[in-house]
Amino acid sequence: METHMEKQSKKIQNKKGKDRTQTPKRYFDNDEKTTQENLGKEEDKKLADEKILLRTNVQGTEKDPWFIPKRLRKKDPFPGPAPISAAKIKKYTKSKKAKPDGIKNKYAEHRYKQQEQAVDVAAKQAARTELLLAEDGGFLEVEDGEDSAKLTQYDIADAVDITSADKFFELHLDKFGPYRMNYTRNGRQLLIGGARGHIAAIDWQTKTLMCEFNAMETVQDLKWLHTENMFAVAQKQWTYVYDNEGLELHCLKTLDCVLRMEFLPYHFLLATASSKGYVSWLDISLGKQVSGCVTHMGRLDVMCQNPQNAIIHLGHSGGTVTLWSPNVKEPLVRMLCHKTAVRGVAVDVSGMYMATAAADRTLKIFDLRSWKPLHSYKIGAGANSLSFSQTGLLAAGLGNIVEVYKDCCATTMTSPYMTHRLTSPVHSLQFCPYEDVLGVGHGHGFTSLLIPGCGEANFDAMEANPYQTKKQRQEWEVKALLEKIQPELISLDAAEIGKVNKPALAIKLDARSKLLFLKPAKSDFEPKFKKKGKSKTGKFEARKHGRRFEEKREVIKESQQLKKIAQKDMEESSNRKAKNDHPKSALDRFKSVKS
């Protein structure tokens, strides 16, 4: 018979799962049961992991990495950022590093280091995003002994794919010519206008007609404005603004007898040159004329803009080229370029080179940094139209022949890159942005030519997007209006926009400091004569003194208010400096601002 105590001890041993009477296990003892149990547990773990993976694949929850256990997650075989070659980083580094030896202030030295780090990060990011640039630019490659200028447009159209071959086409419009033309900034839409009033807006890639009408008046020139929804037409008497459906929006009577127009996209200015020798700038966002002046140079029918600094270049009959800004009533620069009348002017995308053509069959390239001629060429005829492409090609219209020159600014050219003969004289030409296409308006209509290598291969969607939607266009328009550059900032040096106007700032600070310690001006108050003894000498002087005291009191009040404002500004600037001492993060903009 078992006692009560023995029964209780057995129960305790069964609960703990251990037999206290059993001797402890040693390291040299072999237990077959424990090894089999461990193997069974490992197999159960593997089966459980396989079930988890199967379940994640079936339910489609593999997008959530936290659902999978840590032991089953995949490890990155190449941890850390991808390596970048030093040559690529050097390609996208815009400025050289300055030596910080002369910096004595610790705060300035800290700011300098932060700026250098930001420049390095920007260069590395630009080098990494080069992988996203899927397109590569290229030119015609011919064998030794062959000339690329002898290749016709039909030969090129037969050799390229169907999509590119469709970009070579002709519009036979011999009743309303000669035609002038203009592309939008993204290269999607085309605007043509005949001298006899015919106007048409086309989506030339899909060959969709947006609008077509006859103005019943002579058309001198036409330009797209900030979007493809509006365009301006210089007609016989006044300048009109139409929408993309052909409806008249405005009649600008301040711009009369206009012969040539240029639109400045970053300033929202429409620059015009008239037959009366008058140059004017109109702000299309406000509908007001910003500036205007008489050039005293006669008829102005040769005009172009510098895309780098928005300066207007005008060619004159005396062989001179003048540069104009809306801030000055006289030409900024006057250059004697030719002995005869200037018939064509063009400035490249970088703003460093200017090409001019004269009636004496000369074509000259000028360096706008030194204002000296680089190259002078003798061409077959006097060019009446010039245009630079995004890659530096130069197109010239010589009568009914179109010639395209390659590397004419950097090196001396011996022969044209490509040529094409038309059935009528060339009236205007322009390279299509982001496409290997040259548009030519002539007496019998319009021709689109294939020029390999003339367009930029990759476009910046934030700058000009050929595939933008309606919503993207609306958002871009609002952003462009908010970032509009004021016409007062137009100057020869494009880098002045990012600089501080030190003379104006010094004048402003001096005027403000003078106001703080300004003495009240002498009062010229003369009291009126009063009867019954009220105009005695003592009372008369007392009234004058009271008036002086009131004026002095007002001046003191104004100076005290200015002192308070200056003190408040100093406190805010010191608080900002104290806040900016800690390192900034990209997530700081999501922090709540305490009032």
Provide a short characterization of the protein structure.
The chain is of the alpha+beta class and 595 residues long. It has helices spanning 4-16, 32-59, 86-92, 106-128, 153-159, 162-165, 470-482, 502-516, 537-579; strands at residues 169-172, 179-183, 189-194, 198-203, 208-214, 219-224, 230-235, 238-243, 248-256, 258-264, 269-274, 278-283, 288-294, 302-305, 312-315, 320-324, 333-336, 342-347, 353-358, 362-367, 372-378, 385-388, 394-398, 401-405, 418-421, 426-431, 437-442, 445-450.
Walk me through this protein's architecture.
- It is a single chain.
- Residues 58-63 have low confidence and may be disordered.
- The strands form seven sheets. A four-stranded antiparallel β-sheet has the order 1-28-27-26.
- The chain is α+β, with helices and mostly antiparallel strands.
- It has helices at residues 4-16, 32-59, 86-92, 106-128, 153-159, 162-165, 470-482, 502-516, 537-579; strands at 169-172, 179-183, 189-194, 198-203, 208-214, 219-224, 230-235, 238-243, 248-256, 258-264, 269-274, 278-283, 288-294, 302-305, 312-315, 320-324, 333-336, 342-347, 353-358, 362-367, 372-378, 385-388, 394-398, 401-405, 418-421, 426-431, 437-442, 445-450.
- A hairpin with a 5-residue loop joins strand 26 and strand 27 (437-442).
- Helix 3 packs across helix 4.
- It is built from nine helices and 28 strands.
